Amino acid sequence: MMKLTKNETFVLKFLVEDPSTTNQDISEKLDITPQGAGKIRKQLFEKKYIQTQELGLDYEKLGINIHAIAMVKILPSVFKKYLREIWRLRRDKTLLYYFIMEHT
User: Fold this and answer.
1) 71, 83, 91 from 87: Cα distances, Å
2) Residue 57: left if φ>0, alpha if ψ -120 to 50, beta else—which one?
3) Which of 59, 60, 62, 5 has its CA nearest to residue 36?
4) Is-contact 33 27, C-beta < 8 A?
């Protein structure tokens, strides 16, 4: 395991407490430049301490309609356990089609 610098430790702590923390926020807390905070964040990503740098978007606000196809295979023993939730999904107005197939 790699040893973290003092600033890397603080940045990681800030990100764990609030993943939306900006480089500007970090720079103000550590008295460094926002570019320095960004560099530390990048180093944490390269060292694999941060595994993802996802951007969460509100697609509905952006006017983007997402369509997805998913196939979920549920074993008969589990199907009975979650039957209520499965039937509740049928009433979901965003769900266009669903199929329940016999186990083969």
Assistant:
1) 16, 6, 7
2) beta
3) 5
4) yes
- How many C-beta neighbours within 10 Å does residue 86 have? 15
**Helix residue spans in 1-104 (DSSP H):** 6-17, 23-30, 34-46, 76-81, 83-89
Q: What is the pLDDT of residues 1-55, one digit of tens each?
A: 678 899 999 999 988 888 888 999 999 999 999 999 999 999 998 888 888 766 5
- Residue 96 CA, chain-centre distance (Å), reads 25
Q: Which residues contact 53 (CB under 8 A, 6 or more apart)?
A: 45
